[in-house]
Amino acid sequence: MDASHLAPLLTPAGWALLADLPPYDESTVLSVGARLREAGHPPEMVAAALTQQRLRTRAEAKFGPFASRMLFTPDALEQATRLVVSAHHAARYEHAGVQHVADLGCGIGGDAMALAGLGLRVLAVESDEATAALATVNLMVFPEVEVLCADALEVDLTARGIDAVFADPARRSHGHRIADPEQWSPALGRVLALRDDVGALGVKVAPGIDHAALPTDAHVQWASVGGEVVEAGIWCGPLAAEGPGRSALVLSDPPPASDDPRDAPSARVLRDPDCHDPSTPPVHLAPLADVGALGVYVHEPDGAAIRAGLVAHIAERLDAAPVGDRIAYLSGDALPDASLAPFVHSWRVREVLPLNLKMLKTRVREHDIGSLELHKRGVPVTPDAVRAAVRPHGQAHETWIMTRVGNAGDAQRARGAVIVVEPCEAPTVPVS
Fold this sequence. Notes:
The two termini are 42 Å apart. This protein has a nine-stranded mixed beta sheet. It is of the alpha/beta class. It has three domains: 59 residues; 192 residues, Vaccinia Virus protein VP39 (Rossmann fold, 3-Layer(aba) Sandwich); 133 residues. It has twelve helices and 18 strands.
């Protein structure tokens, strides 16, 4: 469904119908729709309203209470920045002392909403006419925001008094992700060139971006929410208060039940103190020699820390080593302290088994295992395939980490293994 299908709702009757709908319930949606049509509401208006109510329910995970007064399309909702992350974006602009921000490629207006929520003037620019209409609706409660339907790179920033830019280039085409930043719309290079007009520039980019594509003088921060890596941000000029380098931002989930963007969940930042150029490749440590070298614990860094190239830094602080060559599982005999705990998931090692499906099936049967939590890195098997092969059906529970242990260049020592683990109680993290 594209934004054009929302036209029936952009009328007084459609808006009133949407406001009067009960909370979305999949089990009653057919009967509610029938009742509304029998009451004389046009079928296309009813369909649009019910779809919108369903999307608003889904959007609560990203936008909290704001979702109940916004309009969405499925694609726009999927691509929108979570409000909890947008609040951190906005805080950078506020702390930099800027006054008028151009949100280029604003989509449905999530980042513009957070910026305006902190009292900043915002020019929200969107080239797609239907999406710009949605942004206009979603931002109409903020008098500081102007929505402009235009090509982002054709806006005269100087003439409009813009002193900062936030850009979110389109990274999809026909439903497929575009890996090459110079094929994004607009290309990353053209967006970064805006620094010649405004020094304060922020760019939302894909978290899998190649470090070599990053500007050497920027600070790049990868963000995860509730354990899911959601984006990376390139911050330039006064928006990069940390100075050039890389860092990971870990945010708790769910978003706050508040209309104030300042009321964000807990946020922790880990920076690589040895990295002052984000374009440099991350350091890779030598792995353990073999399974016999495994320590008491196995640690998995948060995905944002992995993307930010912080695995070696975390390993150093834990006095740990990768279990395998270029594998992000670390093993050692110490648990993280409270400051490092938000960036690491830790387990205690119970046993180490060969990655042999026949043997694993026997273990499941003999240990009466009915519930398996499976994790994997660096081995050509999937958790679903393993679960189907071993057929858990008992009462016990186990957690398995399936991975490669040892140096991939040493065929005699590197092998697939299943590390049977149990969770560790995380250290208490002081509230910031």
